[in-house]
Amino acid sequence: MHAEVGDKVVIHGRTVGTADRGGTVIEARGADGPYVVRFDDGHETLVFPGPDLTVVRTTP
């Protein structure tokens, strides 16, 4: 999974009733992750790509 700075990510809830979380990649530490993500609530964290992560490309 490849993402670049500015791309949007969605982390899908892993259990029933858990909401999806959206954010923006603010730093890519490798070609395929990990990524520093700023979530819509302002929280920043290091995210490792996995099956519950979707990248929405914002760059052409």
Chart the SSEs and their pairings:
Layout lengths: L7 E4 L9 E8 L6 E5 L4 E4 L5 E4 L4
Structure in words:
With 60 residues, the chain is an all-beta fold. The protein has one domain: SH3 type barrels (Roll), CATH 2.30.30. It contains no helices and five strands. The protein starts with 7 loop residues before the first strand and ends with a strand. Pfam families: DUF1918 (PF08940). Residues 1-55 form the DUF1918 domain. This is DUF1918 domain-containing protein.
Short description:
Residues 1-55 form the DUF1918 domain. The chain has 60 residues and is an all-beta fold. The protein has no helices and five strands.
The helix fraction, in percent, is under 10%
Spatial strand arrangement across the major sheet: 4-3-2-1-5
CATH class category name: Mainly Beta
Distance between the termini: 16 Å
Mean pLDDT metric: 91
Helix/strand order, N-terminal first: EEEEE
Count the E strands. Answer: 5
CATH structural fold name: SH3 type barrels
- Biggest β-sheet: count, sense, barrel? 5 strands, antiparallel
- Sequence stretches where pLDDT stays below 50 over 5 or more residues: none
List keywords for this structure.
globular, mainly beta, DUF1918 domain-containing protein, DUF1918, SH3 type barrels
